[in-house]
Amino acid sequence: MSVRFTVNGRKVSANGEARQSLADFLRESMNLTGTHLGCEHGVCGACTINVDGQPTRSCLTLAVACEGSEVHTIEGLQNDRVMIALMDSFHTHHGLQCGYCTPGMLVSARDLILRGKAGNDADIRRGLAGNLCRCTGYTNIVTSIAAAAAALAAQEAA
Ligand code: FES
Ligand code: FES
After folding, report:
1. 112-140, pLDDT tens digit by residue?
2. Backbone conformation region of residue 31, classed left if phi is above 0, alpha if psi is from -120 to 50, else beta
3. Predicted TM-score of the model (pTM)
4. Which ligand is nearest to the CA of 134?
5. Residue-wise pLDDT tens digits, 10-23
6. Nearest 5°: phi and psi at 142?
7. pLDDT for res 154
8. Does the C-beta of 37 come closer than 6 Å to ligand 1?
9. Is the CB of 40 under 6 A from ligand 1?
10. If we measure between CA atoms, which residue out of 55, 106, 59 comes closest to residue 78?
11. The dihedral of CA 121, 42, 99, 77: what is its sign?
12. CA 49 to chain centre
């Protein structure tokens, strides 16, 4: 099967098997290895990317189902102002250890901030319920996201 969509603003076509996941297409055909695979059945959130602006499990999404979609991986969000604030904050507040969960965490956190759902720790923890981390105990991740949200709010108020 052949489908066309955009990845990080670039037009691509996928010609793989109908059963190929979007995650495998991105990693194997596009070398976009910032999309991580953990459980490969929709539980851990490591593979979370944006499809048409929505955080999406790329392990559960078939590449052939993306006809006409706009896909953004962690690599395509490097210049996004919310993502920049999040990456700075994860660095400052030690929001990662091994980093395996981090791309998915950042994509989910960006969505929380954009939707105004990162106003307090309880909201952030609820919003991250679909992203598992085996290293951090979550405290520093939540602190990082709260600090990024506060920094962005202060920028907007200035
Ligand atoms: S690898 Fe997709 S949810 Fe775990
Ligand atoms: S930092 Fe290691 S799994 Fe989250």
Report:
1. 999 999 999 999 999 999 999 999 889 99
2. left
3. 0.96
4. 2
5. 999 988 788 999 99
6. -65, -45
7. 95
8. yes
9. yes
10. 106
11. negative
12. 4
